[in-house]
Design brief:
With 214 residues, the protein is of the alpha/beta class. 44% of the residues lie in helices and 17% in strands. The protein is built from 9 helices and 9 strands. A hairpin with a 2-residue loop joins strand 5 and strand 6. Helix 1 packs across helix 4. The longest helix is centred in the N-terminal third of the chain and has 19 residues.
């Protein structure tokens, strides 16, 4: 009987990109190895939590040595699926869409934005941060011809709902959704919802809580 794949909690998955970022920073200043205790001070979580998190994927540390920074960086990259290139399109060439296109760190992490799409004829043909804006009529064909895996939606709510219907038959594997709505898609498509308003409300709550504790 095949063993079922271990279910990893969302909290652990949310911490992995932070581990990856901090390890990258350690590499940039020439750190070759680090103990779980020293790593915990950088991360702001306990050494025990770090060990528990990483033990879900095999551990990677050695007693008395700690972690090899480069090896752990590469292993977490594999776990996150960023040890290869993912082609992305951004749908919506407004201010936020153009900002995404201009964010250079995406390419460093293996996420390559190939094109912008917009229904506004005045934006079509424009190039932002070296990325061309294409008409919506080319969307389906472009996805299939260029092995696009991820579509970032920086459009209003109603447009995002319509796009989810269009994208479900294109072979897209993931939708990075910045619209203020939850999308209905097949199980074959993974959706990551980024609700900026919810994020700033959490910030407001934490500020309020901090002031009440003072």
């Amino acid at each position: 009987m095949e063993q079922k794949e271990k279910k990893i909690s969302k909290a652990i998955i949310q911490r992995l990109p932070r581990y990856y970022r901090y390890l990258g920073e350690l590499m940039s200043i020439g750190v070759d190895r680090i103990s779980s205790g020293d790593f915990s001070k950088l991360m702001g979580v306990t050494a025990s939590q770090i060990r528990q998190d990483l033990n879900n994927f095999g551990g990677f540390g050695q007693q008395g040595y700690g972690y090899n920074v480069r090896n752990l960086y590469e292993e977490i990259g594999k776990i996150l699926g960023i040890d290869r290139v993912h082609n992305i399109i951004v749908i919506g060439a407004g201010n936020f869409g153009k900002a995404l296109a201009g964010y250079s760190d995406f390419e460093k992490r293996g996420f390559r934005i190939k094109a912008l799409f917009d229904q506004d004829s005045e934006k079509v043909g424009k190039v932002y941060s070296g990325i061309e804006t294409l008409p919506m009529e080319r969307l389906k064909g472009y996805i299939k011809e260029n092995n696009i895996e991820i579509a970032a939606l920086t459009v209003p709510k109603d447009a995002a709902i319509e796009l989810a219907v269009i994208l479900k038959d294109t072979g897209i594997k993931g939708i990075w959704n910045f619209a203020h709505t939850d999308l209905e898609v097949p199980d074959s498509i993974v959706v990551e919802n980024v609700h900026l308003s919810e994020s700033i409300m959490r910030l407001s709550y934490n500020m309020k809580s901090r002031s009440e504790e003072a």
